Amino acid sequence: MTTTRFAPSPTGHIHVGNLRTALMNWLIARKAGGTFILRLDDTDRERSKQEYADGIQRDLEWLGLTWDRIERQSDRLDRYAEAADQLRASGRLYEVFETPTELDLKRKKQLNMGRPPVYDRAGLALPDEQKAALRAEGREGYWRFQLDQQRIEWPDGIIGDVSIDAASVSDPVLIRADGQVLYTFASSVDDVDMGVTDIVRGADHVTNTATQIQIIQALGGTPPRFAHHSLLTGPQGEELSKRLGTLSLRDLREQGVAPEALLSLMARLGSNQPVELRMSLDALADGFDLSQFGASPTKFDAEDLWPLTRERNQHLPFEAVRDRITALGVPDNIAERFWSVARQNITRLDDLGPWWALMRDGAAPVVAPEDEDFVREALALLPPRPWTDATWDEWTAAVKETTGRKGKGLFMPLRKALTGMDHGPEMGALMPLLQQVARAG
Ligand SMILES: Nc1ncnc2c1ncn2[C@@H]1O[C@H](COP(=O)(O)OP(=O)(O)OP(=O)(O)O)[C@@H](O)[C@H]1O
Fold first, then answer.
1. What pLDDT tens digit does each residue of the chain (441 aa) get?
2. The domain containing residue 371 runs over which residues?
3. Which residues does the record give as ATP binding sites (predicted)?
């Protein structure tokens, strides 16, 4: 059965780049009727925080990207220890003692000699007495995985056939001196144990994938299908980072971005398919095709979310906004009418508030000096309440007859006098909702 996962580290608020990964994996599982796992990579105890783990779940739930199963790597430490023993027993895990400074020196020497800075496997040849002597000096050993130095190849779902020479890659460190298992290892153990069949992730992981394919094989597992999508940057090409909180989902939600808008953009951005608003995840899954995505870096501009948010909000049925409208204090008998008039003039649902304030309180009229006499004359002709759908037409016809004005010169000063603005809902529909006559006049 198709099983995918999204495996963020809870070290900050997830951003749109992380969402690209989450959404692609979610859509693959949904399309195949498979399982989507949310896996919190929380083995880094210093940087992982419960509030971020909660935040990730809140962000995904807001978008409807719910999971069939949740896993925390911090619950699986015994299992990683067992898997490490398995690799030690098969001779694939070896202890090393170099300090970061020593490694740096080695790298510099290699580069000076025109050689690639690949770990020289000095630790592999250390006899037990020397290891004991290093420990006696107070050094602590940590553990590297011995790569099989062949080419590692896989057909990537996005970037095509990949072939990496394992000899050009350093044997990865899997376990630190303090015993912390590193991402490369924990995630390979998890992917085997959890039966993950498909992994989509950022192009920052391509080298990891090469080493993980060998780790998974050494654990007796079958490597999943891999695909690496391009990394998203900000509109100016700036990097996104969980730590800095750039373009976080939390901020976008608080700014009033509609979930459907964000999902519709993310499911197509960087692909050959056009971005179109989709009101459900199933509709998004229908047209989703990994092979349509390109490998080149992709810019994300949050401004693109607003036209989609507007389109989505304008599509909402009254029932979906009833509570919000009631909360504004709009009386029940005019709530539906208020929605039908205001919806065409909002982007965010929060924009409903100012429209209701205008209808409830009226606005300070805006009158150009050259229109002062005209507006005074017009307001004197304003029919008594209640105003109906016909009031605007009747009133402007009367004003036209009396003053001889027509067209924009007639309508615009009246709109500005009643609403204080030069734009807004159609005046015919708005007038019955205007609770107050304009404040001055
Ligand atoms: N800018 C980006 N564009 C697309 N995908 C990204 C981007 N940054 C991270 N990802 C993907 O998000 C997934 C989760 O990764 P991870 O939790 O390590 O996020 P991160 O933002 O790289 O983390 P951090 O900033 O904390 O180092 C990975 O699959 C990674 O490839």
1. 999 999 999 999 999 999 999 999 999 999 999 999 999 999 988 999 999 999 999 999 999 999 999 999 999 999 999 999 999 999 999 999 999 999 999 999 999 999 999 999 999 999 999 999 999 999 999 999 999 999 999 999 999 999 999 999 999 999 999 999 999 999 999 999 999 999 999 999 999 999 999 999 999 999 999 999 999 999 999 999 888 888 999 999 999 999 999 999 999 999 999 999 999 999 999 989 999 998 888 999 999 999 999 999 999 999 999 999 999 999 999 999 999 999 999 999 999 999 999 999 989 999 999 999 999 999 999 999 889 999 999 999 999 999 999 999 999 999 999 999 999 999 999 999 997 654 444
2. 316-433
3. 242
Distance 40 CA to ligand 1 centre (A): 13
Atom of ligand 1 nearest to the CA of 204: 31
Q: Examine the fold and report which residue of 300, 315, 330 is the final residue of a domain before the chain moves on.
A: 315
Strands (E), 331-408: none
Instruction: Encode 120-163 in three state secondary structure.
Output: CCHHHHCCHHHHHHHHHCCCCCEEEECCCCCEEEEEECCCEEEE
| Ligand 1 centroid distance, CA of 219 (Å) | 26
Q: Count up the domains in the chain and report the number.
A: 2
Here the ipTM equals: 0.94
CA 72 vs. chain centroid, Å, equals: 21
Pairing outcome for strands 298-299 and 232-233: parallel
pTM listed for this prediction:
0.91
Examine residue 259 and state whether it is found in any structural domain, yes or no. Answer: yes
Expressed in angstroms and rounded, the spacing between residue 254 Cα and the centre of ligand 1 is: 22
Establish if 113 belongs to a structural domain. no
